[in-house]
Amino acid sequence: MVRAGAGQAERVTIPLARRAFQHWDGSWRTEPGEYTVHAGSSVAGLPLTAQVSAP
Hints:
mainly beta; two-stranded antiparallel ribbon; two-stranded antiparallel sheet; 0% helix
């Protein structure tokens, strides 16, 4: 968990396994391209986004 006070910002690194970008199609496949990762305090509130490329 990362906490920041009002008006403060914190930079974090969240490692994502290669499998996070894969789907099953008879075998595990990774579609090339960029993905949008959403983050927030719950699934109902995801105010942060970042673009990442598939590994």
